[in-house]
Amino acid sequence: MASKQELKRYRINLADELHGAAVYETLARVETDPERKRTFGELAASEHEHAKVWADKLRANHQRVRTRPVLKTVLLKGLVHVFGPRFVLPSLAAAEFADRNKYARSPDTAKMSEDERHHASVVQRLANDGKPEATKGAEIAQAESWHRGVSSGNDLRAAVLGANDGLVSNFCLIMGVAGAGTQSKAILLTALAGIVAGACSMALGEWLSVTNARELARTQIAKEADEIEHTPDAEQHELRLIYRAKGLDYEEASRVAAEIMKDKDKALDALTREELGLDPAELGGNPWSAAAVSFCLFSAGAIFPAMPFLWSTGQPAILQCIAFSVIALAAIGMFTSLFNGRSAMYSAVRQVVIGLVAAAFTFGIGHLLGVSVS
C-alpha cells in the first residue's frame, strides 16, 4: 500500500499528464500545418500513456481517479483557440523544459523520464519554428525567455505580467488618493493621469531595455569579428572546445572548427550563436514594438480600477473600483497559474489577497496624509 505522500505524488503526476494531453490535443485540432499537427497528436498520445500509468497506480491502491479538466487546462485551451498555437508555445516549452527531469529519480519511470526530455526538446523546436537549439546555455535562455521582457516572444507571460503592473499600480494609486478624502472627479483625473504616466514609463523602460540589449549584442559581435580578424588561431581553438563540449572527438572537432574558420562570415555566425548565445537575426527584438506592446498592456490593466469613476461617484465608485480590481486580480492570478506550477484557485486567491493588502496599505497612508494636511 502506497503512503499518503506517494498517493499525493501519483495524483499530481496524473493531473499534470492529463493537462498536457488535453493541451496537445487542442493544439493538434487548431494547428493547420500537417507536420506540426501530427507532432502535437503524438505528444498527446504519449501524455495519455503516462497518465494511464499514474491512474493504474491509484486504482491499485483503491483510490478514486479524477479525470476532469482543471481550470488551468480550460484557460490554456481557450487561449489556443483564441490566439493560436504560437501564442502559448513559449510558455508550454518553458514548462516542459522545467519538468524534463521530474521522473529521473525513480528507476521504474525511466521510460517516462526519457519521453519527458524528448517532449521538452520537441516543443522547444516547435516554439522556435523548427530551429534547433545552439547550446545548452542558449536552450535554457530560450526556455526561460520571460526574463527578457515583452520582446522575448513569450507573449502570454509578458501580457499577464504587463497587465498586472498596470492594475496593481493604478489600484493602489486610486486607493491612496481616495483614502485622503479626495473628491471623485479628482480621483478620476488622478487615475487617468496614472494610466498615462505609468504606461509611458513602462514603454520607455522597455524601449531602453531592448535598445541597450541590442547595442550590447552588437558590441559583443563586433569584438568577435575583430578577434577573428586578428587572432584567428585563438578563435579556432574556441570553436574546437565548443564542439568538443558538444560530444565530438578531438579530431572531428578540430576538422569542423578549421572548416568553419575558412569563411569569416560563417565563423562569426557560429561564434555569435555558440559562444555568445545570440541570434544575429534578432538581437533582442524591435525596441519600438516592445515599447508599444508594453504601453498597451499596462494601460489594459490600469483601466479596470479607473472605470467606475467614469459613471459613479463617492463611496459607490470606490466599492465598484475594489470589485472591478478584485475580479481583474483573480483573472490575472488564474493566468499566472499557467506558468507558476500552482493551481488556478490558489494563484487567484493569492493575487487578490496581495493586491488588497497593497491597496489597503496605500489607502491607510493616504488617509493619514489627508488628515495631517487638513
Overview of this protein structure:
- The protein has 374 residues and is mainly α.
- The protein is 79% helix and 0% strand.
- The protein has 15 helices and no strands.
- The radius of gyration is 25 Å and the shape is flat.
- Residues 132-153 have low confidence and may be disordered.
Work out the helix count.
Answer: 15
Oligomer: single chain
Class by SSE composition: mainly alpha
Number of strands: 0
Cα end-to-end separation: 70 Å
- Which percent range describes the beta-strand content? under 5%
Q: Biggest β-sheet, characterized?
A: none
- Kindly report the average pLDDT value: 81
Shape type: flat
Total number of distinct structural domains? 3
Order of helices and strands: HHHHHHHHHHHHHHH
- What are the low-pLDDT stretches, counting only 5+ consecutive residues below 50? 132-153
Radius of gyration: 25 Å
- What share of residues is helical? over 70%
Quick tags:
mainly alpha; flat; 15 helices; 374 residues; Ferritin
